[in-house]
């Protein structure tokens, strides 16, 4: 196959603060959205239905994010394991409520800032570049309860204060930044991305697109600030990407797939990268009765704050059919669509489609001609610890191998791909299901859905495989 990945390719792994750190009330941290989301199957129901109350009810539910996998206390051990695999980059997020416990204070929490100083120093000690997500489903709870989350324009100013503190504090330690995690997922899961539960199903779209507009402005302000405070910084957007296929060659289905695909995959990207609302969105707004309230300078701000690169998560493709019956709907596909008869699915019903990643990379690069980074891609699966302590996760290796091969093909296609951070390089609390048992890591963490476990770390078979992949710059798969 020969050499495909560039010499300076950024290999690594990715996590989010709320899924690994734990220590939910230590170090002056305030509660955030993830702290009130219960674990288990009930989580998805709460995420998608209006009227979630943002209260902690320990008599009824468990809250695994409070403890997560205790990265807060074990970050040195974990970073040493990342270094052993050869990571060039580690994608992580900063918990907003560690820096501003309520989100609307004027002065940041020094203990929170000092924690991330220690993490960045530890990464640099091992030659690992931090890639930092500024907002990864971690809206401070006070901003949700008091202000209604991102529906409220006031959050733009609070976010600006937060990013200004981050850029000034870490300007010598962090070069790569991402503004909002999976920003385009907000219309599907406003609770995650926008920090509110829709008033009703009827108001969901209006509220979500208004909240998104506030995030677009906030993101653009962050990009402009970052370039001023850290001139050599690279600031990207982060999308959830699912190439959208027509179920068959019926033109009705082809057109439906085009409409669904561009709304989901390209709307947010166009705003972030081109600095303007795309032409197609105006018809969609008109047909759905959506009216975005803007201030006069908003569009100018968005135009001036375009990103340097595009990062995205890729887990699955999506297959669309205009008229579908209930039994055709893909059960595990988080973003709609019908079952694809050509694809197998994971234990959680997520369809596995490595070629879709090559499609995604070609679509994104063809549209924007900006450097790309795949910052989430991985397989959530049940892992079994053998009697000798080993974990033979060949299914994970097969999954990742296929996707890395697809990236190599995309590079051959001429795509400018600069990095890959596989999701959940260490086991963590799943965002969608709040489970420990949905494992993604190369590193096993002895922690279970019933709360038991020692938190001990151990290397899975995939750990050694990924080490070889990085060491050979993608030639040994």
TrEMBL record:
Protein name: 6-phospho-beta-glucosidase
Highest taxon, organism lineage: Bacteria
PANTHER family: 6-PHOSPHO-BETA-GLUCOSIDASE ASCB-RELATED, GLYCOSYL HYDROLASE
Pfam families hit by this protein: Glyco_hydro_1
Gene3D superfamilies per record: Glycosidases
Keyword Acetylation: no
Keywords for this protein: Glycosidase, Hydrolase
GO cellular component: cytosol
A biological process term (GO) from this entry: carbohydrate catabolic process
One example GO MF annotation: beta-glucosidase activity
Similarity-based family: Belongs to the glycosyl hydrolase 1 family.
InterPro entries in alphabetical order: GH (IPR017853), GH_1_N_CS (IPR033132), Glyco_hydro_1 (IPR001360)
Organism: Sinobaca qinghaiensis
